Amino acid sequence: QSWSRGMSYCLHSEGHLDTGPIYMRENGKLHVVNQGAGSIQNVTPKARPFSLFSRSFSVELCMNREDDRARRQRTDHFIFTYTKEGNLRYSAKSLFSLVLGYISDNVDHIDSLIGFPEQIAEKLFSAAEARQKFTEPVTGLRALQKFTEAYGSLVLCSLCLRNRYLVISEKLEEIKSFRELTCLDLSCCKLGDEHELLEHLTKEALSSVKRLLLKDNSLSDAGLRRMTAPVRVLKKGLENLLVLDLSCNPKITDVGIGYLLSFKKLNCLDISGTGLKDVDAVIKRLQMQIGLVHSKVPLEEFDHSNCKTEGWAEQTVLQWEQAVMEAMKPQDNLRSRVAALHFYGKTHRIEEVVKCTVVEPETKASGNLQFYKENVQNCHLPLKKEVAGSHELKNNKKRALAEQERERTSTQKHLCLTVEDWDLLNTY
Known about the structure:
There is one protein chain. The chain is α/β, with parallel strands linked by helices. Among the domains are: 77-154, no CATH class; 156-328 and 367-373, Leucine-rich repeat, LRR (right-handed beta-alpha superhelix) (Alpha-Beta Horseshoe). The chain is built from 18 helices and twelve strands. It has helices at residues 2-13, 68-75, 95-105, 118-130, 139-151, 165-170, 172-176, 196-200, 221-234, 254-259, 279-290, 314-328, 332-343, 361-366, 384-388, 391-409, 412-415, 419-426, and strands at 22-26, 29-33, 40-41, 78-82, 88-92, 158-160, 183-185, 211-213, 243-245, 268-270, 293-294, 370-372. It has a seven-stranded mixed sheet, with helices on one face. A hairpin with a 5-residue loop joins strand 4 and strand 5. The protein is elongated and about 120 Å long. The chain starts with a helix and ends with a helix.
């Protein structure tokens, strides 16, 4: 009776499902239960198709991260596409693509790329960049150094780090690995005189810099003295500098401007917003000694929108910035604490990215202090014809050339060094 009650309960509870025949073994014999009548028949089971899963059953395959490398090795050798009919189609990848992918996965183990073809190296750099190999803390720096040692300006010829002080802090060693840069924009980063990156500017690796923008970096005369010491004494460092922006640094005075007179190749200079005491004397000094003429209108050379990051590593710098921004996002467990502070009326300190919002009352007081050389076409001047038309500037130009000739013939000026200069040279 208990067996029949259990069987009838099973039949009534699951009668709406197509479970198929039910078999029971009793006294050594196999019996089939007829669901329709609920009776037991002593017959041999018939072979009929039986589906283990219902039609609505679905399976989702999940793989662990430990299996990613094995899965990649199984699928990376093929290219999967779909035909017009919707059928899956795959074809084998070329041997070059397979080797390129393997080397990019292990790019930090490369010994050297010197003498390697540039066309292949660019593809290798792009493949490693797509895998975000250069964002890794230790291996990324080692891999980036192999490319910069071999290809220099091809990796990066222009670097714009305006308002990116956090990127400089997090990726300082990577930034220092770039060689043969021609343009470097460090505007509005508040680096100060003692920053390691400013000391790196005097190294031989950055002697190719022709355009340097240091607007709003809390620089003083001491910083300019250190930055110009190799040029003034050893004729090395930033000797190829053509454009220099030192605007919005109020601690730079007339003494600091005197250190800039060693840049004989300088074509454009911006010292607006500095702490000059005798502006007229500085203007006359720059014109007489290095031939720079005061511009009445803003120069296009100091338009910061023209400075961009260019080279193979352009996307790499963007990846660094994105990683820094992701790290700055507030955590979920801190949001409740911030809400509580707002509820109880307490102010919460929010750290934001330093932005260059300089209104510069000093600039308005002293006016626009941008300088250029008349005989150089690299500096774009809307009013160049009007300035060049005065006889007074022509006479000043002749006096400036005569003064430069006297400096070349004079040897005492180069041999006469102060004690501070010698102490500074010993640090390099």
